[in-house]
Specification:
It is a single chain. The protein has one domain: Immunoglobulins (Immunoglobulin-like, Sandwich), CATH 2.60.40.10. Helix content is 29%, strand content 45%. It has 1 helix and 7 strands, in the order αβββββββ. It is elongated. The protein starts with a helix and ends with a strand.
Length: 165
């Protein structure tokens, strides 16, 4: 009877040791995965927005037709993949009038691999507006960089304001 109690105690200790080792291994794997993911997101963000290339990372082209009251444009973001994993990059553009009414809202996303260069493009068209009387346009641009099954990432937004004449 004593040997079974000792065996049961030893097997509980072995099970506890195995669970402890397995838990520590999972924690280490999670920490390394998070570090690699943040490195990838940071590298993609840095290489896309803060490089000293000839080409600007964000390009916007806007044309207005005062006769038809149409404002059309293209916003393009140059994405350069960095790090060691693929990165999902998303952008949302919202254009509002001076009163805060939304005139346009659109988004686009793409996945970029390390070392790959892609362009994230959004086309917009706003019709039936009086370009002559337009006092101001407000725009909001939100960028998201995510990796590791979209679990790790960064998102930031900026507001732009255009004053009329």
């Amino acid at each position: 009877m004593e040997t079974t109690i000792v065996d049961a105690k030893m097997s509980k200790e072995k099970i506890a040791r195995i669970i402890k080792t397995f838990s520590l291994a999972l924690i280490v794997i999670a920490m390394v995965s998070f570090a690699v993911s943040m490195f990838t997101v940071t590298e993609t963000l840095t290489e896309s927005l803060f490089t000293e290339e000839i080409e600007e990372p964000i390009q916007v082209s806007v044309m207005g037709d005062p006769i038809s009251g149409t404002l059309t444009g293209v916003a393009s973001l140059r994405i350069v993949g960095g790090g060691v994993m693929s990165t999902n990059v998303s952008a949302t553009l919202e254009i509002m009038d001076a009163q805060g009414n939304t005139l346009f809202s659109g988004s686009n996303s793409t996945t970029v691999s390390p070392g790959e260069v892609k362009y994230l493009t959004m086309r917009f068209s706003i019709s039936d507006i009086d370009l002559e009387a337009l006092e101001a346009l407000n725009a909001s641009l939100r960028l998201g960089f995510r990796t590791f099954f979209n679990l790790v990432g960064m998102e930031f937004s900026t507001g732009l304001r255009s004053e009329g004449d």
